Amino acid sequence: MSEEYKVSIGLETHVQLKTRSKIWCGCANVFGSEPNVDVCPICLGYPGTMPVLNREAVKLTVLSGLMLGCEINRYSKFDRKSYFYPDMPKNYQISQYDKPLCLGGSVEIEVNGKKKTIRIHRIHLEEDVAKNNHFDGASGVDFNRAGTPLMEIVSEPDLESADEAFAYLQALKQILVYGGVSDCNLEQGNMRCDINCSVRPESQEQLGTKTEIKNMNTFKGVHRSLTYEIKRQIDELRKGGKIYQETRRWDDEQGVTKAMRSKEYAHDYRYFPEPDLMPVVLEEAEIEAWQASLPELPATRRQRFISEYSLPEYDAGVLVAEKAIADYFEQVAELSGNAKAASNWMMTEMMRVLSDRDAEIVDLPITPAALGALIKLVDDKVVNMPGAKTVFAELVEQGGDPQAIVDAKGLAQVSDTAALDAWVEEAIAANPKSVADYQGGKQAALQFLMGQVMKASRGKANPPMVLDALRERLGAAG
Amino acid sequence: MTQTDAIDVKYVAHLARMQLSDEEIATFQSQLEHVLVHVRELSELDVEGVEPTAHAVPVHNVFREDAVRPSLDHDRVMANAPQARQGLFMVPQIIE
User: Fold this and answer.
1) Boundaries of domain holding B11
2) What does the buried/exposed string (b/e) look like for B49-88 if buried means 16 or more CB atoms within 10 Å of the residue's CB?
């Protein structure tokens, strides 16, 4: 029986910060412009240009640190990391070496019902570099991305599976989006990570030799590459082989990691203090003010939804997963005065619409006020559930006022006893067999008769009243 | 001066992508060692209790507000490009 192996994974996650302008200059921090349009001599790395630090980039990094429970360094500074690559013509990247903005902290994850704390080592602030486009025989460089404020979150090697790495990235993304520090839009490259992975026999205390997988830009890619790399390392050790400390590249098409030519990555960055930027000294009062401005984080909000609105744990988890959805739900709950109904609408109809259309909730024409009003119309028995669903479908398409839609489509629920009695009599007269079945003890027959009444009313009859009328007319089931 | 902390001029030159002849390496080796000896005099000072500093001037928190300013006109940006294609700076193929 071969020995089991333990896995240790650490992630270095790069997150682009949501500032208006770049980190050292006033060029716009936007995605999707034509190449080399949002650039100036500073972000092009011209000699003699002077960077000036964007205050907002510092604030967003510190906010991230506060949300992740980091210790905030009161004294922080920037350093030059030297390397030669066309994505950085000044031949160094301004980063932070020995005095990063944040130290320590952690992220809570849950995999298969098991909760776990993943420690953060540090968070530092740096500049993003240009983007290379590859052609046959040449490369083309676009500097629009150069100078985007980039936060690097380094985890401790506490992750022990591809599933945990995936859960960590999701939890991190959720927190950062909640805090408004980044959109974490993966398609736009807002979040990219480098993976450090090693395995070791269970009996071994000390970490095994690690490999690094560079520049992953999807969570799924992280999961797939780790699944492959963990198996590769274990297979290698099982057959008596050796793991080399090297940088590997994930080939998404072939589904394998491949060693890169290690010589090109034998870096010696020669970090030294950036003489063109002054240190950052953070005052206690400033940090406290930022701390006070932090939004409620997903885990806390989930607990509150459970206690305040009496939602099941699962529903609360679904509703808080995205801040926009959680905000929407809370508004609907407040405006309708019926949190349970609000949750039901969100969990069923709204989630279905969002997934069918692959839409964002803020982009739908239906406002929280409209959904709140619709719930009230149901509670006030102005419209029944089938009618309300018709109104909802209309609101999703065009927005508008629920009451006006009820009037325009003639959806108002009929609760008038005389009208209901007429439909009930009609259904009973037309279906003697069902009547006999019900009186013979078949509950299902009552549902059938109920359906006939709803049909006759074209969906507008008040269902509980119909049920009462039928029971009264037919007596209890035999 | 000990040999253990001598500068490896050949290695440093490679890091800086400088091509030096053997004679130049020998010349710089000797010159840089003199510089080191000079700088090392600082270690004779008693700096007990003095905080390390990254800057000689006591200035900190030099910020700019997060406001967008016009970028450089694209034609001017590309004016210095030895080669351009589709608005990109073209460089020899980068091997990943």
Assistant:
1) 3-43
2) eeeeebeeeeebeeebebebeebbebeebbeeeeebeebb
Chain A residues close to B66, C-beta within 8 Å: 19-21, 54-57
Q: How far is A267 from chain B (nearest CA, A)?
A: 9
One-character DSSP codes across A16-59: E---SB-SSSSSB--SSPPTT-S--TTTTT-TT----EEHHHHH
Instruction: Please identify, among A238, A264, A288, the residue that sits at the C-terminal boundary of a domain.
Output: A288
Chain A hits for B67, Cβ within 8 Å: 20-21, 26
Supply the ipTM of this predicted assembly: 0.87
pTM for this model (two decimals): 0.82
Distance from the Cα of A280 to chain B's closest Cα (Å) equals 5
* DSSP code for B43: G
Indicate whether B32 belongs to any domain: yes
The CATH number covering residue A467 comes to 1.10.10.410
A391 contacts: CB under 8 Å, gap ≥ 6: A374, A377, A383, A402, A405, A406, A409, A411
Q: What is the pLDDT of residues A139-155, one digit of tens each?
A: 999 999 999 999 999 99
Mean pLDDT of chain A: 92
How far, in Å, CA of A278 to CA of A263, rounded?
Answer: 35
User: In chain A, how many domains are there?
Assistant: 3
- Say yes or no: A335 and A421 in one domain: no
Cβ contacts (< 8 Å) between B65 and chain A: which residues? 54-56
Residue among B62, B66, B94 whose CB faces A139 most closely: B94
pLDDT digits (tens, 9 = 90+) for A413-442: 888 888 888 888 888 999 999 898 988 888
Of A58, A141, A279, the CB nearest to B55: A279
Residue A153 lies in a domain: yes
Q: What is the pLDDT of residues B17-30, one digit of tens each?
A: 899 999 999 999 99
Read off the CATH number of the domain in which B21 is found.
1.10.20
In a domain, B50, yes or no: no
What total of structural domains would you count in chain B? 1
- With an 8 Å Cβ cutoff, the interface of chain B facing chain A consists of 15, 17, 54-55, 57, 59-72, 74, 77-78, 85-96
Banded model confidence at residue A266, pLDDT cuts 50, 70, 90: low
Domain carrying residue A396 = 298-409
